[in-house]
Amino acid sequence: MLCLLLPRRRYCTSVAIAHNSQISRYARLGQIESARRVFDEMPDKGIVSWNSMIAGYFQNNRPREARYLFDKMPERNTVSWNGLISGYVKNGMVSEARKVFDVMPERNVVSWTAMVRGYVQEGLISEAETLFWQISEKNVVSWTVMLGGLIQARRIDEAWRLFDLMPVKDVVARTNMISGYCQEGRLAEARELFDSMPHRNVISWTTMISGYIHNGQVDVARKLFEVMPEKNEVSWTAMLMGYTQSGRIEEASELFDAMPAKAVVACNAMILGLGQNGEVARARQVFDQMREKDDGTWSAMIKVYGRKGFELEALNLFAVMQREGVRSNFPCLISILSVCATLASLDHGRQVHAELVKSQFDSDVFVASILITMYVKCGDLVKARQIFDQFSPKDIVMWNSIITGYAQHGLANEALQVFHEMCSSGMATDDVTFVGVLSACSYTGKVKEGLEIFESMKSKYLVEPKTEHYACMVDLLGRAGLVNDAMDLIHKMPVEADAITWGALLGACRTHMNMDLAEVAAKKLLQLEPKNAGPYILLSNIYASKGRWSDVAELRRNMRVRKVSKSPGCSWIEVEKRVHMFTGGVSMKHPELSSIMKMLEKLDAMLREAGYYPDSSFVLHDVDEEEKVLSLGYHSERLAVAFGLLKVPEGMPIRVMKNLRVCGDCHSAIKLIAKVTGREIILRDANRFHHFKEGFCSCKDYW
After folding, report:
1. Order of strands across the sheet with 681-684?
2. Among 19, 32, 198, 322, which is disulfide-ready with 60 (CB 3.0 to 4.6 Å)?
3. Longest C-alpha distance within the chain, in Å?
4. What is the rounded distance in angstroms from the CA atom of residue 538 to the CA atom of residue 113?
5. What are the C-alpha distances in Å from 223 to residues 241, 260, 611?
6. How many CA atoms lie within 13 A of 212 on its CB side?
């Protein structure tokens, strides 16, 4: 009879092993329901099966189901109890783990070590130490876990004393100690320990090399890298990142080319390194040549595009990423949000916001601040304020974001109200706060309020005025026509006035036609920024408005000699998640140019009927009056508005962005366009927002 039963038992055992293997595999793949189905269908469940299923639940972050199943176990062993402790630890539930530890009937070294690891993982090093010294029989893992905890807490000298007590110092413990010394910048001690190691593995070598890189000694790292007996992908990538992070891109490229196998993480590092050094085309080449890409690859390329002024390319790549079904990671979403803010791409911004909500990132204060900035720059102040009001507690970045937002939209009263709420809440102000508040006063002509706040910065708010605050005050006084007072303030500044300050004065001189001070400010600007076209353009505006065409020609000649080029004016508008760019002039290329021209002709007739006549003083060219009028009609912002009227549905605001300051004639024209068409038009130029509605602008013509 016994002989007949043995094969059956072996068969049952092999089936159970297969089932247990299936449970583990499904759990690893995140298919926990399939794992449970296999478990439930097993006719005979042993302790191993129960333990496997419980471990699967913990692996899939479902500790409640794991505990429920544990409580139903018909019998348990020490492995079962240890699995429960380890599961709670992995899920960050160290207090629950301790409750289990305290009641388990029998503990072994694995139980003690799991609990110590839990405390270390949560940063509770004192609790870990107390428990560690209670372990009667410590093994090499126990010692190494405690050593790692002390290193993690930056208690490096205590870590060394513990290391010295270790009865067995294996390669892992020695490598951890080297890493700890490197983190503290104690490279000599790290190297001494490295050199004394009886046996080194590739991780030990890589740790020492990374230590040198982390402390800025890239050349020493390279020498050690060259004598490594064996290199793996991590070693190559560590050395590569040493070069990319220190800006030594050519050496990084040479190393990258020499790599026997280019891991995804190495390619990602190369994309970022090339991008940071302005080599955007080469970064894209690396991206395109990769056979395998992870979410970090897409994120890296999008980040490069966003930071180097290729916002449209960033949006296009993000669209490709979504079409290919790649899930956006957190850094990618943040990069795209910044791109949306720059382009004022509201539709894309809303989409990214929805992704952040879905991924539960929107509760982060950093994300909330970026969302506020994005909505502000897209012209949706209502949504920006909604996020601000919903979030609590607020940090200083969030307060500053909404204050600056109101300032950019010319809503000084709202900006000042939030400023006073901020002070009442007990939140300390900083430099950025006062740039926002003073800008709000400047944009709306609140000279008295601005002066009071500026003069109380140091005495009341304990913030020392800096160059940027003086620049705001020069702008405030200059816009109000107090150009001489602005000049006096520059002379009284405790620090040297910078280009922004002189630029604010020059802009005021342009508005109020103060030729003498304009020339003084322009000369200062040309000394500070000889390659900046701005001063030339502003001075040209002043000369042109006075009909001094010979002076305009002389300025243009100087620009050519000094190889100074003016950034071409361009405007853009987003329609159905696609950004349309416009440059000035009839030679502009656009698939719907003929329809845009017809709309402009229609608008021209409507504007003339409403009493509009172009102000040709805003045209710089020395041409006849008819040509000047024609030139004004084709400024980029007007082309974008015409396209918006064609494409944006009735009842929705037309949102247009411009890279330069809107010209005075276009400002007047768009006010009337808003009136005769009954549409709301929101224009963001290089300085601020203009909300046009029913023939009026939010700036009240004070800009």
Report:
1. 578-583, 570-575, 654-658, 681-684, 689-693, 696-697
2. 32
3. 119
4. 72
5. 15, 19, 77
6. 23
Task: Give tens-digit pLDDT for 574-605.
Answer: 998 888 999 876 556 788 989 999 999 999 99
Half-sphere exposure for 384 (CA within 13 Å, toward CB): 25
Per-residue pLDDT of 41-58, as tens digits, reads 888 888 998 999 999 999
How far apart, in whole angstroms, are the C-alpha atoms of residue 658 and residue 676? 22
Tokens of 59: 């692996």
Cα 142 to Cα 315, 328, 683, distances in angstroms: 50, 39, 64
Rounded-to-integer distance, Cα 569 and Cα 619, Å: 13
What is the rounded CA–CA span in Å between residue 611 and residue 471? 38
Query: CB of 509 within 8 A of CB of 480?
Result: no
CB 272 within 8 A of CB 300: yes
Cα–Cα distance measured from residue 145 to residue 118, given in angstroms and rounded to the nearest whole number? 10
Neighbours of 425 (CB within 10 A): 10
Name the DSSP letter for residue 621: S
Q: Which of 351, 401, 400, 405 is nearest to 376 (CA)?
A: 405
Cis geometry, peptide bond prior to residue 63 (ω within 30 degrees of 0): no
> Tokens at residue 456, please?
């109380």
Let me know: does 354 contact 322? Beta carbons within 8 Å: no
Cα–Cα dist 408/439, whole Å:
8
CB contact at 8 A, 649 and 560: no
Q: At which residue do the structure tokens 């492995």 appear?
A: 79
3-state secondary structure of 661: coil
Which pTM does this prediction carry? 0.75
HSE, side-chain direction, 13 A CA sphere, residue 231: 19
Could you tell me if 84 and 54 are in contact, meaning their C-beta atoms sit under 8 angstroms apart?
A: yes
Residue with tokens 């990142």: 241
Closest alpha carbon to 582 in 627, 635, 618:
635
Q: Per-residue pLDDT averaged across 402-421, rounded? A: 95
Name, in order, each residue with C-beta under 8 angstroms of 346's C-beta and a sequence gap of 6 or more: 340, 375, 378, 379, 380, 574, 655
Closest CA relative to residue 476, chosen from 435, 535, 536? 435
Tokens of 286: 């690396």
Q: Average the pLDDT over 136-150 and give the result.
A: 93
Structure tokens at 671: 């006010």
Residue 578: its H or E element: strand 578-583
Q: How far apart are CA 465 and CA 431, in angstroms?
A: 8
Rounded to the nearest 10 degrees, what angle do helices 233-245 and 218-226 cross at?
160
Residue at 497: amino acid letter:
A
CA dist 651 and 648 (Å) reads 9
Q: At what angle do helices 187-196 and 202-214 cross, to 10 degrees?
A: 170
282-290, Cβ contacts within 8 angstroms, sequence gap of 24 or more: 290/262, 290/264
Q: pLDDT (tens digit, 9 = 90+) per residue, 170-182? A: 999 999 999 999 9
In angstroms and rounded to an integer, the radius of gyration of the C-alpha atoms of the chain is 33
